[in-house]
Amino acid sequence: MTRDQNLSRFLQSDGRTVILPIDHGTAIPVPGLEDPTGLIEALNPIVDGYVVNLGVALSAADALSEKGICLRTDSYKPKYGDNLDEGSYRLYGADEALTVGAHGMMNMLYTHHSNEVGITREAAELIGESLETDIPVILEALPFGIGFPDQYTVENIGFTVRAAAELGADIVKTAFPTGASAEEFKDIVDACFVPVIVLGGAAMGDDEALLSMVKKAIDGGAAGIAVGRNVWQHANPAGIAKALYAVVHEDASVESAAKLVFS
Predict the structure, then answer these.
(1) How many CA atoms lie within 13 A of 121 on its CB side?
(2) How far is 191 from 213, CA to CA, in rounded Å?
(3) Which of the residues 25, 105, 109, 166 has an alpha carbon 20 to 30 A from that of 120?
C-alpha cells in the first residue's frame, strides 16, 4: 500500500477517525481487555481502527483484517515506586509492522522527560523506517510523560504537538490541554501541519465529561480520537463508542450523542 492508502484505513472520507487503542497490556493492568478478539469483533461496526501490541495483532488477525491496524512499537511505563523512569522504549519497527499487515505504527514522544534524548532518537529512527516502507507513524506526543495532567497546559501541549510534526509524524496523538477551550486547542491544531487526534486517558466514569472533551477537540479542529479505557472499561463499550463516533463523524451535540450510550 502507498502511504496515503495506509492513512485512509484510519482517516475516513471526512478526514476524521475513531481509533480504539487496546495496547495497554504491556504498561498497566487491563481489566476490561480479557478478550481482545471478542472486543474487536463487537466494535468493528463502529470504530475505524485499533492500536495493538504485536501479540494481539497476531492472535486477532482475522478480526482486525478489515480495519486500520496501528502497531504499538514501544512500551510506555508510568513511574512506579523507585524504578528507573525510562518513560518509553522501542520494541518493534517497520519489519514487524509489515509482518502483521499494519497500516501504521505508534510510538511515544515525551518532551521535557528525563529520557527525552533517547525517546526522541527512537521516534526519529522509527520515522526513518517509515520513509522506507510507506507505513505512517502516529507519535503520541505528551509533555513529561503519561499521566501528568498538571503539565498538559496549552503551551506545553502546543510545543509537543509541533515537535512531533517537525520530526515527521504523519498524525499526532495528544491530550486535550487541561482546562483549555476549543479556541485554544484550535490554535494548537492550526500551528500543526499534520492531523491531530486526542486521547481519552484514564476512564472518567462520566459520559458527559468525556463527550464534552471530545466535542471541544473536534470543534477545535481535531481530526478525531484515540480513546481506549473510556470505551472498553465502560459499562456499555458499544454504546459509548457509538456516541463518540457520532460526535467525531456526524458533528453530533453532546446531548444527542449521550442518548446513544444506552439506547
Answers:
(1) 4
(2) 20
(3) 25
Distance (Å, whole) CA 205 – CA 219: 23
How many residues would you count in the chain?
263
Q: How far apart are CA 81 and CA 84, in angstroms?
A: 9
Q: Given phi > 0 = left and psi -120 to 50 = alpha, else beta, which region is 259?
A: alpha
pLDDT at residue 77, as a whole number: 76
pTM for this model (two decimals):
0.97
Asked if 212 and 198 touch (Cβ cutoff 8 Å), the reply is no
Q: Are 232 and 20 in contact (CB under 8 A)?
A: yes
Residue predicted with more confidence, 105 or 27: 105
| Cα gap 171→226, rounded to integer Å | 11
